[in-house]
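Aim 2 progress update. The chain analyzed this quarter is reproduced below.
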Amino acid sequence: MKNSELASIRNDYTIDSLDITNVDVDPIRQFGIWMEEVLNAGIDEPNAMMLATTGRDLQPSARIVLLRDFDADGFIFYTNYKSRKGCQVDENPKVALSFFWKELERQVRIEGGIEKLTDEISDKYFFARPFESRLSAVVSPQSKPVPNREFLESSREDLRDKYPDQDLHRPKEWGGYIVKPKRIEFWQGRAGRLHDRVLYTLENINWKIERLAP
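Predicted structure tokens:
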């Protein structure tokens, strides 16, 4: 593909609109409204979100993780605490999330602090996972070099032999995080690139709502 072909790609957005007068005063409730619409639309991987972290070296790093829950306090996902993202979070507990649902021409951007969940919450989620997923979480030294795939598969089979009754406990280095938002932006694509953007900013305990230029 030539670079000129990339520059010529054009998709107009005409599905919906977004106005400051018709959003919920609480951004978490507004997110819930959009998520329900995403689920009803049958979109693949509706909970896939980009997580951006920055460590002490100030080099940003981003990857897709899966949202597993959200409530008034924030947005929850699970991972290995010793992974690159976990190490960066230890060094700088400020992160960003983004969702993009192209079928609905919508995007949500979130910025805030991040904290580990309690052991009790992480245990509950870990034991609710499929056994194969729990095996993989235990054997994978996430983000660390490994000699080959056979090393991982062999480690998993050894662990399966050790725990045939599926009594496999959560490792200390694996668990949940909650992202507590301070900024949440809702983006709705519009025709001619004159998009709608509504920003919520947390000021003390109240949310300030503004419309942004596209």
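The mean pLDDT is 95. The longest strand covers residues 174-188. These observations will guide the mutagenesis experiments scheduled for the next reporting period.
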